[in-house]
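Lab meeting prep.
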Amino acid sequence: MIKYNLICKCGKNFDSWFSTSREYEVLKKRKLISCIYCSSTLVEKSIMSPNLGNKSNKLAKENKIKKNIKKQLLNFRKYIEKNFTNVGEKFPQEARKIHYDKKTSKGIYGMATPEETSELIEEGIEVDSIPWLNKKEH
């Protein structure tokens, strides 16, 4: 995992985690990274200072952070499963129905390819992607 300090064209700074620096580049190219304040995709990495701590302490700290992130993602998954409707692979179609037909919905979740997600965003449909951890990995 790698944490980047990001800055938006609106001038706001925020942090985000990525599995690798390559993942950041792929998501940036596909315009899937957006500002948490204004939703703009004009976001760049800002200068970061290196963390030069003791290697064993750093590893222990990283493991603790990873465990905490996994726990938060699993809690997030539980919340989504309890409060939203799983539409599976029909997510792009259902999201469009809600958006264009102004259909009332308690909220949906499901699966979409990166291309489908990009298309939804280009159409002005709000979507977010999150890592969907296996419940047994905890």
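Slide two material, second protein:
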Amino acid sequence: MRNRWLAGATLVVAAVALAACGNSSPSDPPASNAGANAHATDTGAHSVTIRTMKTSKGTVLVDAQGHTLYWFAKDTSTKSNCNGSCATYWPPVIGKVTAGVMLPHGFGTIKRADGQTQATYDGHPLYTYVGDTRAGEVTGNGLSLSGGLWWAVTPSGKTISAKKSHKSSTSSSSGGGGSGGGGGGW
């Protein structure tokens, strides 16, 4: 008799717990996406820390995990042109930026086609690259994929050579589409 009462009480508690868990508002992200790719599933409510790192190709901006940040030549200061399968290979940096270092250009955000908030640097939407599997890798620099060129983001806004530079003067004198002192001239 006592076991039946205990079983019934356990079912009531379980039902209440399930009802509370299933009561989410439409603005909550789906639970099935939690913990997937943070760049692709986050709603932008958090802050992304950006810092610099010296790599084999020069100093670039990286996320908190040390993954190189990239910009896409087809983007504009208000629109990302990397969506769908493109964003699978080049995950957008979702959220507002907290700079871990002083940088010469500013951070901002844009609204993506899917409604997420994407971080920008000097007016360029930011991405990581799935081909970079370790901190400090810059394998996406200079690639022509998804209909345009991809460049590692540098603090100065200048592109870095797609080939490995042997001297720092080589990469700083190349200018390869540098900003020329103006914003957004990458």
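Talking points for slide two:
DSSP finds four helices and nine strands in the chain.
The longest helix spans residues 2-21.
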